[in-house]
Each structure stands twice: as structure tokens, then as C-alpha cells.
Fold this sequence. Notes:
Blueprint: H1 12-34, H2 47-50, E1 57-58, H3 60-76, H4 90-93, E2 101-102, H5 103-117
Amino acid sequence: MKRNHDSGLLPPQLWALALVPVWIGLVIAPLALAQDAAPPAGGPPGFAAFDLDGDGRLTAAEFAQARAQRIAERSQQGYRMRNLSRAPAFAAIDRDGNGQIDREEFEAAQARQWRERQGQP
């Protein structure tokens, strides 16, 4: 491979290789994070666990059904049902008041609840 010693620039092939880590950081990593991965054991359930019909929106009935299923499962597994009274209501999560919760509202509510548990505003 010839190098342009006069300009000190890398040939295009090497620029492409140099940009691979940037591409991975800007494209691949956010896509991986955006996927609805299974929560860790004992962690909060993801949006998909509540979206029972898979339409990308939660109705009040769907939300209540998924929450009841989660509580029953956790109880059968022997987990203590602490803080149920502090669980946010459907209306508190449905920030725009349209009667449905989308993924953004759901994840924002989880983040708010986590911050509150950690004593952050």
C-alpha cells in the first residue's frame, strides 16, 4: 500500500477501518440498547411484558391484567409483595392523557420511579 508522504493523509482503505469503532458506537450500540431485552431477575418488567397484544400501546385493562399477572407470578415464586401501594397508577403513567401508554411513557415512568427509589429528584 502506498502512503501519500507529502500530505500525511491515510489512504481511503485505512480511513474505512478507522471508522469502524465509530460506526459501532453510533449505530450498533443504540440499536442493541433499544431492543426490549428481558429484565434482570427481580428487576422491573419491560414494556413488552405489559403489551399483551403486541400493538405498541397499553390500555388500562391490558396494564391491569399484566400487572396482576406479574404480581401473581412473583408471589408464587416466593417474593414478598413490598411497595405495591407505591406502584404508579395507569393515569400517572399516561402523561398525555390519551387513554393509552406508549413505550416512551412507560420507560419514562420506570425511570422516574427508579430515581425516586434512589432518593433522586
